[in-house]
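Lab meeting notes turned into a lecture example. A postdoc, R.K., suggested we walk through two folding results consecutively so the class can see how the record format repeats. The first protein's sequence and structure tokens come next.
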Amino acid sequence: MQYRTVVEEPRTEKGRATRTRILRAASRLIGERGIDRVSLEDVEREAGVGRSQLYHYFDGRDDLLRAVIDTTTDAVLGSQHGLLSDLDSLEAIDRWFDGLVALQERRGARGGCPIGSLVGQLAERDERTRAALVSGFERWEEPLVAGLTRMQEDGRLRRDANVDWLADVTMAAIQGGLLLTQVRRDPQQLRRALDGARAVLAGAAA
């Protein structure tokens, strides 16, 4: 299931800048305080807009939250720029894994997974919001599925290997590793989880 917030893009540069400013303000406040402690008034004050402007770009609080999920996913994928483009070899996957661990080292093992942190706050809100979260993880997983599929087509991955299952195992390792890294303030927690995923992937190699 894929879902992305469908909105009509503002037609003017000023409109696009205003919408982006609102989204950035909401994302920043939610990241710092949590969803339950952020009101529309907080977002308006942070973004420097009025209620009429906010409702011009977003159809209420839930629509804004779903847009924040999309924006957060964009940021997560952007932080892995250059590492997700060609995951069609174990060496490329190793570089991706190394990049994920290095990112946690630079962050001091703080913050965990931005998408994952939204799951705990939003997954039970409503089906459209849950679908937006599902879509976020699917967008993250897509490059790995594509890379593993190419490996299978080229004969470097066993024909009986389930590519979707391998990708799910890898994403579960990333999420679990990020959670333990955040709690224990130790990037090696992520490294160990990724080593486990790497062993599974290597076991599926032809």
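The second example is placed directly after the first for contrast:
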Amino acid sequence: MPAPPAYRRILLKLSGEALMGREGYGIDHEVARSVADEIRDAHAQGASIGVVIGGGNIFRGIRARELGIDRVGADTIGMLATVMNSLALQDALEKRGLETRVQSAIQMNAVAEPFIRRRAIRHLEKGRVVIFAAGTGSPYFSTDTAAALRALEIGADILMKGTKVDGLFTADPSTDPTAQIIRRTTYDQVLDDRLKVMDTAAIAHCRENELPILIFNMQESGNIVRAVRGEAIGSLIACADYRLESSSA
């Protein structure tokens, strides 16, 4: 029997680009399978897992607006792209023996359940992985904000955001060789320093509700399991007096 996870329930936020791999566009199914393996292994630790995925590998709202599509239309198309990614991840997870549900903030009953908070919590209690699609269902809100919102609604102990780098840095590590990783910081420091890790609305939601955020490298094998176990990886954003024991199972 594995040791109990350090976090009873997590919300995992993945960018759409995380599924793109080397394809440059769309879904790299090898990457999707790898992500599904990571989630399966974390689930086996006893963690209850919700997932929010972006849609940037399929459609980017910024680019659409450059082409003349208005903000509301662009954001709506982007939300639909997250549904496609969610269904792809669902397929990969179920092929690994996990029970899943996709819940969409935009109703499309032929492919996903509508988002209903109590139903989502019940699925999690039954050991299912719940994938939250279509962002918040409203334009002008990013999937980071959707992840913060869903994490709070399901009572997650932590919001974990998988990225392509090891965490927060003092500068851009791809251009500044002196950049150093920031292992721990506060919400206020992230906002004051304008660290571009999540949008300000998402950070503010987490700060107001004292929900810790872990930024970690999704591309390093085994990192989701390490994060669930409470190992010291990535960068933690939390209240100054936050201690892991406060959210231990």
